[in-house]
Amino acid sequence: MTKLNFILKNSWPKLAWVCRINISEDSAIILHGPAVEIFENWAVEAVWDKDFEKGDFDKTDIIFGSGIRKRCDKLIFVSSSTVVDRLWHVSMDGKIFVSNTLPGLLTVAELSLLYDYPNYASDMASIIMKGLYRYKKNIPTNGPDINILYFNNLVWTNGLLEIIEKPDYSPMFNDFTTYKNYLETVAHNIGKNANSKSRTYPIGMLTGLSSGYDSVATSVISRHAGCNKAVSIENSSSFWRGSDSGQHIAKKLGFICEVVKHDKNKYQNEIYSWAATGLSGGRNQHLFNYPKPLCLFFGGYFGDTIWNRKKQNLIEPKGSTTSFCEFRLLEGIFVSVVPWWGIKHAAEIQKINLLEEMKPWTLGTDYDRPIARRLAEEAGINRGDFAIRKKDTASNFSPLLWPSTGSARASFKSFLKSIKIKPLSDFQVYILEVFYKILNLAYKNTIKNFGVRKWWRPWLNSPGRNLVFIWANHELKKKYSLKE
């Protein structure tokens, strides 16, 4: 690889990039949004646990975001150390395309999704349902299939694009102290990286905070990175309603906390979530006011597995949310998932919950996460102040797969009409969503106890259900103009 050529696209989402490799010329052109950091031999939109100035994000298993690193004759594409994000790549017409955005890749490679392919949403959900090793590795287009890569890296060398594993620098986790020290050290190091004076744009920090285990433990750790701001959703969508706000915990941790109400009509840029997965979950994260111009966001996703006493011997990590990956490029967010730190040692971390030393933080209930509880209580959070009952503030409250905000609904309806499909009216959507809630509540409290599966679900036949992923990416392709 002789040289990296960079082309700034000011109109693109600020952290997006697409790399085009001409195989015969062994040259690479990188089209990128305005907040991607550009150097002679590397480009990055990420925070990691090493010195920013050296650009060694390809030599770590702690990175949040993505980047491209040239080393001698190799070009290394680095993915995030979580499954919140992913890389896309495709080979066609003597070129290789690699990107951190699907609509951007579709635009530059001049490809389109297939209107008659019904499984895009289930393909995207496979990282959650199956896991890091068995997820669906590609999706079809009107040309070649586009490949999907989570967690690992890609290397272009000697005319070949190969997948390589991230290095593993995590210690053996034999006790709580070793694990806690590791978390605190990683937090300190990524905080130092984020605050580097060599960065073009400053990075603010924010942690998601509720009254549950995982967000509280995550927020405790985030303080070691220098985070002092939190955001919390007040109203729970669980059957056992009540406030899920973590504001009282924020005060004890010394955080400034913004509390928002979960209003599905106020999802910002909702279409970006649908473009990520074609599923309804994750849109609640579109309610927050993230620090500008860039933000390092700490999340506790997957803590219900890694820190759960009843779950042991994890072999295949799974995703818990993948809906953030396109939205974060627009907003300028790096998503750091604390329970994923040291994920290659997941089984060791899980066993810590069972150690004799953890008994004082073990409740013996169905909602029991000793590691998270100890992190919180040793930070000064009282036992009765958090993790009393599991609550939910998620946005996957309906299987209808229909946008919630006015602008997104109007766009989706227009798209359906353009392909000769009659969309549902807002009243029909409302009736189906209410009907679902009633049937689901009745099912969970009656016949489910007898092992009977759901059988009548009319919302599964709603027009456009399998088209929402296609619609969103079709519309977002327009955001990736090549004319500048």
Could you please describe the fold and organization of this structure?
The protein has 484 residues and is α/β, with parallel strands linked by helices. It has three domains: 4-164, no CATH class; 176-385, Rossmann fold, CATH 3.40.50; 406-479, no CATH class. It has 13 helices and 18 strands. The protein has helices at 102-108, 120-129, 176-194, 213-222, 247-253, 271-277, 303-306, 327-331, 346-352, 370-378, 406-418, 426-445, 468-476, and strands at 4-8, 17-22, 27-32, 37-38, 42-48, 63-71, 74-78, 87-92, 95-99, 138-139, 146-149, 153-157, 160-164, 203-208, 229-233, 256-260, 294-299, 333-337. Helix 5 links the parallel strand 15 (229-233) and strand 16 (256-260). Helix 11 crosses helix 13. The chain is globular. The two termini are 26 Å apart. The model has no long low-confidence stretch (mean pLDDT 90).
Give the tally of structural domains.
Answer: 3
Rg, nearest Å:
22 Å
Question: N-to-C terminal Cα separation, in Å?
Answer: 26 Å
CATH architecture of the largest domain: 3-Layer(aba) Sandwich
Counting DSSP H or I runs of 4 or more residues, the number of helices is: 13
Reported by name, the CATH topology of the largest domain is: Rossmann fold
Shape: globular
Number of strands: 18
Strand share of the residues?
A: 15-25%
Spans of at least 5 consecutive residues with low confidence: none
Q: Give the helix/strand class.
A: alpha/beta
If you average the pLDDT, what whole number results?
90
CATH superfamily of the largest domain: HUPs
Helix content class:
25-40%
